[in-house]
Amino acid sequence: MASRKRPKTNNNRYLPSKKAHLDTRFEPELLFDLGVDVLSDEEDSEPTNIYNDYDKKMANNFKERKILKPVPFRDIDYKRKSTDECSMKSDPFSVLPDEIVVKILWYLNHKSLTALSQTCRRFSVLCRDEVLWPRLNLTSRKLDVDAIGHILVRGVKVLRLNSVVFPSPIMSRNLTLKLDSFVSNVRYLDLSYAWIKVEDLSLLMSKMRRLIKLSLESLNVDVNVMNQVVENKGLDTLNLAMATGLDVECVDVLTSHLRKLESLNLAWTRLDTPALAVLCRKLTPCVKHLDISGTQLLLKNEDIVTLVKRCPSVESLDISDCLSLSVNTFREIIKHLVSLKSLAVSRSYQIEARTLLEVKTLEKLEVLAAYRLIPENMLDAICSDLPNIKVNSNPFSVIARPTVGIRRTSIWEQATNE
Fold first, then answer.
1. Is the pTM of this model over 0.90?
2. What is the pLDDT of residues 214-228, one digit of tens each?
3. Three-state SS across 45-101?
């Protein structure tokens, strides 16, 4: 097999030129300072000691330069930028007072405030200012342990927790001890349809002492919860519609302590006859709006008469689904409640349609709900006989309820959204 010939290479291709040692790109003086001496071709003398020449040159240069004597350390004045001056360039908020910063933060939403509070200690404090958290809407949220405690300490005044799922316990032991004597600033609280245990509800209500309006609709309550509720001496609106666990003791606590109550909703709470009797005998005369519908045969006529005589200032009364309501009791209601503006007697089947026309004597009456009592062929005739009264215009009660109609972004006319 024939071997392959190796190509010849030009070994002289990278050889330097003859004058390469003379083609220097550095000045001789610079090379001399580096300890290198440039030799000329004509120089046949013996090599000199370049290091000695270098030392001599450096010595001469040192003499020519005017070197100052070293200054003592104590006489040196270092001028350094202050920390405040450096922080001003990186953080312009550092020169602003807290009041101005809070005013600026007021334009942020709750999500941005939460994120900003994690940047530094100052913002952590300022972002928790109660001015920035006047209202909060957590409808249908699922809260973690201690979440409600952190919400309350921020000074929220309007708090909507409708259909919220609470953990059990709602607060850890450490936070419970820390907030032992804490009192929240909440004025308007909506807990309707929330998922919360009775003992956790009692703990939550123990932090409420400034409530004006409260809704516990469809919750399970007991006397301990009621004892905490009545500590809010300024409470004027209470919604307990469809709440379970109410008994004679609970009703006695409510009627004995809430003397400023103006709106009360106890619709379909399954109160027994003794509890209803206590309610009618001890309810504060200040009440103006009352819903006790759904009592069926448990509410006695004599108790209703006692109630209307004790509370003559009632403006809205709903006793729908009261099967025991008689015609004479209906007339007693018209006789004593001269300030009535709204009356609901739906499905109280002892009341006849022609009896409803007696409400003409109520000069201030605006709404009459009498569903299932007025036949369809008589509805137009009754409406013509009561021209200034809206007959069967709204089948739902609005007494003490936080939300009315399609407005779901406010409770008791207080906005809950940002």
1. no
2. 999 999 999 999 999
3. CCCCCHHHHHHHHHHHHHHHCCCCCCCCHHHCCCCCCCHHHHHHHHCHHHHCCHHHH
